[in-house]
Amino acid sequence: xxxxxxxxxxxxxxxxxxxxxxxxxxxxxxxxxxxxxxxxxxxxxxxxxxxxxxxxxxxxxxxxxxxxxxxxxxxxxxxxxxxxxxxxxxxxxxxxxxxxxxxxxxxxxxxxxxxxxxxxxxxxxxxxxxxxxxxxxxxxxxxxxxxxxxxxxxxxxxxxxxxxxxxxxxxxxxxxxxxxxxxxxxxxxxxxxxxxxxxxxxxxxxxxxxxxxxxxxxxxxxxxxxxxxxxxxxxxxxxxxxxxxxxxxxxxxxxxxxxxxxxxxxxxxxxxxxxxxxxxxxxxxxxxxxxxxxxxxxxxxxxxxxxxxxxxxxxxxxxxxxxxxxxxxxxxxxxxxxxxxxxxxxxxxxxxxxxxxxxxxxxxxxxxxxxxxxxxxxxxxxxxxxxxxxxxxxxxxxxxxxxxxxxxxxxxxxxxxxxxxxxxxxxxxxxxxxxxxxxxxxxxxxxxxxxxxxxxxxxxxxxxxxxxxxxxxxxxxxxxxxxxxxxxxxxxxxxxx
Length: 497
Fold this sequence. Notes:
single chain; 497 residues; globular
């Protein structure tokens, strides 16, 4: 690879590090809320409510942004950052978000009845405003990424999470403790008024709403920069480009969230919410993989668009993919090597679901590979293929979940997720090599995850050892993986020299 290519890769790594630092720090801090929820609400059914509502939120976030972020990147790059692109995209999301909020605000009770929460229409109302405000901020955040202002992006995302955490600790930590305790100091008597047992788990939604509102206010400078006049013709062009991505994104969210939605409806009522809560809590343990993937996507999408005209762009894409897979394989092995202490991040009543963690980690790895591969149809403006692939994944997800959840419970949901993402990655690779061939090293892309899985399998028989020797041996295997990667990559560099 040329010096220019190496420099660009270094720039991508730097951007990923900034996005990743904020994402890692923020989401790890947010991850600390999982023990708060699972230890405070010992009945998994309570956490099942949160799991269900955020599954719906993920679907609606895709609907309310309808591919406009990617359309903004594409049209801004090809029109030399024409300010009208930003104004047009921002106004489009502003109008659609306002209509969404008006509809759900007026229909909160009927929707709560339909979701089997007739006594809590406020859950619907609070989450509607969270979703609407988050959609409204999508384009300003996209603009920060497009301008490579990773620092401000990271700061605002981190502040959002800190405010959310603060709200949770205030209501569900201090407030709940003061309300339930008989030994509260007199000077803390006010804290008991912060908690209402009738709201209970609903404070999760309230804290999120406060955080979303604060983020919207902090983005005011970005909103005020939309001075150019929106263009109707441009908006139509952006919609034509974006709508296939909407279908793809919606189908993708079906793949990602439908398991949590269907668990409630496909299992017997007496166990459904408990299993949903257990699955949702253990799903959180796979967060390290999703954190890395999210950080990578923030940096990679504008990077790939910026480099697509370069002579060695395809070689660069292949290099990025290889190191991405190496990083994901390492994360898989690191989590599973240390699952003995990682498990304590969820309450005891939730730990029976730990068997889903390795399956979901591998599923997220496959999802990350798919995101990497998907650049071919975005660069070639053949976004319909993204729709086809996502629809295939959605159909497969639905079939497998309807088949396996009644028989296997949440384990069936986990296996369905893995098979869905693996099949999507495979199909995207085959189609991409036909329409936009990239010289991926398929042997290493398959070999590194397989090596990580084999090393994890070697760890399974040693669970009976004392804690310190066990952890030492497990992390020794992790170090061995890194050593093998180093030797293989050094050999490759020498052979290409």
